[in-house]
From TrEMBL:
Pfam families xref list: 2-Hacid_dh, 2-Hacid_dh_C
PANTHER family: D-ISOMER SPECIFIC 2-HYDROXYACID DEHYDROGENASE CATALYTIC DOMAIN-CONTAINING PROTEIN-RELATED, D-ISOMER SPECIFIC 2-HYDROXYACID DEHYDROGENASE FAMILY PROTEIN (AFU_ORTHOLOGUE AFUA_1G13630)
Keyword presence, Coiled coil: no
D-isomer specific 2-hydroxyacid dehydrogenase NAD-binding domain: residues covered: 108-276
InterPro entries named among the record's database cross-references: D-iso_2-hydroxyacid_DH_PdxB, D-isomer_2_OHA_DH_cat_dom, D-isomer_DH_CS, D-isomer_DH_CS1, D-isomer_DH_NAD-bd, NAD(P)-bd_dom_sf
Family annotation (SUPFAM superfamilies): Formate/glycerate dehydrogenase catalytic domain-like (SSF52283), NAD(P)-binding Rossmann-fold domains (SSF51735)
Annotated ranges, domain D-isomer specific 2-hydroxyacid dehydrogenase catalytic: 13-309
Name this protein carries in UniProt: Hydroxyacid dehydrogenase
Organism: Apilactobacillus apinorum
Keywords: NAD, Oxidoreductase
Family: Belongs to the D-isomer specific 2-hydroxyacid dehydrogenase family.
């Protein structure tokens, strides 16, 4: 009997074929909440989307040997618990780095050019708005990149053709031809745009907060394509309402999907997308191949290439 692998239905177009080609029985699920997963608790492997996976559910899936994240972040699964259970947790580093970096740069341009509001006004029949609200060039501006992993590096490289000054902060020292490494406070004080690319881990969760926004220029914008938990959302809303910063471009939020009653939805100086920056055909294809390969390696009894929980 073929080993069973659970996959999220929204990615089945990309995932199902490579896993079936490896010889596995593929189970497509509408969602990955406990009630749904436990209908297939005999599964040997799982490709996990961004849904939180609790330890109680994991413990009831006694055959489970591998949880392959469809993406880079893995803050929705308890790594230590999986390690204790002997379950590999893997991710797909670099799988969506171009897609996310392109979206981060796009948000910087949208905010500097006020394109969202201009387009919205034009749709409403107001062609004069743009003439009375001139935009800004990013050439000559200072852009801070917080977190210099694969995505942060791509952002710096893409911005290098715009004539900007790039400042970089990273938790561990690195070198780059695309920017100057500076301390945390200096980056936030000097930057006209701050682009966040940090994982949500101890030491980074809530690290961008009221004190951080007070350091920033009131003309500065912040862009978050990392994780919502990196920013204290209540402090961000306060800063946006008070004019401590000029605006924000957000693809991630503390709670996802973003609640309909969130104040962020009503703020005119916020450009939002629903955590879809990595959603390109190219990135989905690459991530599917990588996550399928990780599942296959583990279920064949081999070590995966991108284990993140120390097994």
């Amino acid at each position: 009997m073929a080993q069973k692998v659970i996959i999220p239905k929204e990615f089945a177009h990309y995932l199902a074929e490579p896993l079936r080609n490896y010889g596995y029985e593929v189970v497509e699920v509408e969602d990955q909440y406990a009630d749904t997963l436990l209908q297939h608790k005999d599964a040997d492997g799982m490709v996990l989307n961004a849904t939180p996976l609790d330890n109680e559910t994991i413990d009831q899936m006694t055959n489970l040997k591998v949880i392959a994240r469809f993406g880079v972040g893995y803050d929705n699964v308890d790594l230590q618990h999986c390690k204790e259970r002997g379950i590999y947790v893997t991710n797909t580093p670099g799988g969506n780095e171009v897609a996310v970096a392109e979206c981060a740069v796009t948000d910087i341009l949208i905010l500097s050019k006020n394109l969202y509001t201009v387009s919205k006004k034009m749709h409403e029949g107001d062609d004069s708005f743009a003439f009375h609200h001139p935009s800004h060039d990013i050439k000559g501006k200072t852009i801070g990149i917080v977190g210099y992993g694969n995505i942060g590096q791509q952002v710096a490289k893409m911005l290098s053709g715009f004539g900007v000054k790039t400042l970089i902060w990273n938790r561990s020292p690195r070198t780059s031809e695309y920017g100057e490494f500076v301390e945390w406070d200096e980056l936030f004080k000097r930057s006209d745009f701050v682009s966040l690319h940090l994982p949500a881990v101890k030491g980074t969760i809530g690290s961008v907060n009221k004190e951080t926004f007070k350091m920033m220029k009131d003309s500065a914008f912040i862009v978050n394509f990392a994780r919502g938990a990196v920013i204290n959302e209540a402090d961000l809303i306060e800063a946006l309402k008070n004019g401590d910063i000029a605006g924000a471009g957000l693809d991630v939020f503390e709670k996802e999907p973003l609640p309909m009653d969130s104040e962020l939805r009503s703020l005119k100086n916020v450009f939002m997308t629903p955590h879809n920056s990595g959603f390109s055909v190219e990135s989905f294809t690459k991530i599917s191949d990588m996550s399928s390969s990780e599942v296959n390696l583990v279920l064949k009894g081999e070590k995966p290439e991108h284990c993140v929980n120390g097994l």
